[in-house]
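Problem 3 from the worked examples.
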Amino acid sequence: MLNRKKQQRQKVVGFTLIELMITVAVVAILAAIAFPSYQDYVRRGQLSEAFTYLADFKVKLEQFYQDNRNYGTNGCGHDGTAQRVNFAAPGVRYFTFACDLGATNQLYTITAAGSAGSATGHIYTLNQNNERSTTTFKGSAVTKTCWLIRGDEC
C-alpha cells in the first residue's frame, strides 16, 4: 500500500501532445518564412557571377581594342587568326556568355544568360558604352537599363 501511494505522488515528466503540436506549428511557420528568403539569397549570390564576368569580358575587349582598333574581325575578341577573348571562361557555373559584334566591328554586346541553379531565367547585357540592361528577370521579360538583382527597380 505504501508503495502504491509513492507512485501516485511522483510527478510525470515529459511533454503533452498539445505542447508538441504547438512546437511543430512554430517551427513550420519559421520555416515557411525563412526558406523563401534563403532561396532569394542563394539566387542573388549566383547572379553576381554574371556581373563579375561581364565586367571582366568588357575589360578584355577594351584591351583587345587598344591593340587592334576594333573589337574583332571574326567575332568578339577574334583577330582573324585566333580567339583572343575566351567567353567560355573556366570556373563559370551558372551562366553562359555570348558576344555579338556590330556592323563596323566598333560595337559589341556581351550577353550573360542564366543556365543553371537559381540563375536560370535571368539575362543581362553589357555593351561598349558600359550600358547595362536586364532583358529577362526571374523568367519574365523586362526592359530595364540596369542589372536587376531584387525587385523591379534599378
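Problem 4, a separate protein:
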Amino acid sequence: MDILYGVVGEGMGHATRSRVVLEALAQREHRIKVVVSGRAHRWLTERLASFSNINVEEIEGLTLSYFGNSVDRSASLFENLRKAPKSVAKNVEVYRRVVESGFQPQVVISDFESWAALYGLNHRLPVISIDNMQVINRCQHDKLLRKDKSFDFRLAKLAVKVKVPRAYHYLVASFFFPPVRKKYTTLVPPILRPEALAAKRERGDHVLVYQTQKDNHELIPALRQLGYRFRVYGFGREGREGNVTLCPFSEQGFLDDLRTARAAVAGGGFSMMSEAVSIGVPLLSVPVQGQFEQELNARYLTALGYGTWSETLDVGRIADFLERSADFERNLASFGQRGNATLLRCLDELLERIQRGEPRAARLESDAPGKWEPETDEDDEDEELPEAEPTV
C-alpha cells in the first residue's frame, strides 16, 4: 500500500516510536512518504536512509516554550503566531509537492501530527492514529483525577481531540490500561525501540537522573546531600562533583545506565517512562507543569506502584523514593507487556481491512490489553462523520 505518515516534531518520543512502526511497514514492502517537523526530521532521515521505499519530507509544526519546569503558554502562543506565515507557506509547498509527485496514498497514519491527518480528511482517506496522547480523550479516568484538575483535564481533552479528529481507528500506546470509553479505540503496550527491547535488567547501585533544565543550579547540591551515586544526563556538560557524575549525551550510554540503575528520576514524558516501566526500573516522575498528559502518566505510575511522582524535585522526596525503590521494583515485575507485536498485529489488521474496502470496525479482532466495550460507549457527534470512511 501507499501510506502517508505524519510525525509531530515536538519532543523526540514521537520520532523514536514512529521509527519502529515505519521500519516494520517498510519491511512489509509498503511505500511510505513521511512528513515530519522539528529536529525529528533530521533524526528520522538519518535512521531511515537505508529504506528505498521511504521518503521523508520536512514540514513546520507547533512548538512549546518553557520557563523553568513549566510550559509558558503565552510565549508558546506568541512564538507560533510569529512563525505562522512562514510555516503555512512551507506546508502549502509540501502539500503541492505531495499532490504533484503522483504519490497517491491509500491510507494516512498520524503520530499526533495534524498536517497528514488533515490531508487524509480532505482527500477522504482513512486515517489511523498511533500515539499515546489519545488516552486522555478516549479513556475513562474518573477514579484518578482531582476536582481541582478538571479545567486542565477538559483543556487537554479538547486539544487532543482536535489534533487528529475523526480517525478510522485510534491505536493508543500505554503502560496503563483504563477503561476505553469510545469506539474505534484500542490500547496497546508501549512501542519500544529495538535497543530498549534488547535491554536486559541488571540492577546496580547508581541512580539515573534525566534533567532537561540546564539552569537548575540547585539540583547537584541537593543530590550531593544524599548517600547514593548519581549519573545525571541533560546538563550539556561532563564532569564529576562528589557522588554526582555529569554524563554527555549518548543514546546507548543512557540506556545502559537506565537498565543497570537502582532507580531513575526524570520528567513525565511517556517514552522515558514507558521504557523504565518496561525494563523494570522504579521511577520518580516530576512532570512539566502545564503538561497535563505528563501528570496523568505520573499519576498512573504511582497508582500502579511502579514509582511515585512529585510536583517539585527536592531532597526529601528523592530520599523517600529511593528508600522505597525495592517495593516499586517488585511491583514492576508484574508488568509483563513488553514488545511491539500487539501494535503491529492491530496495524496489520487495520491495513488489511482498508485494502479490502471494509467498513471500519468499532472493535478489532486482534488481542490487545484495552478495547472498547459497548456498555462504556459515549456518544460523540464527530465519530460518524463521512470523512472518516475509507475511499481506496
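Solution to problem 4. The mean pLDDT is 86. The chain is about 40% helix and 20% strand.
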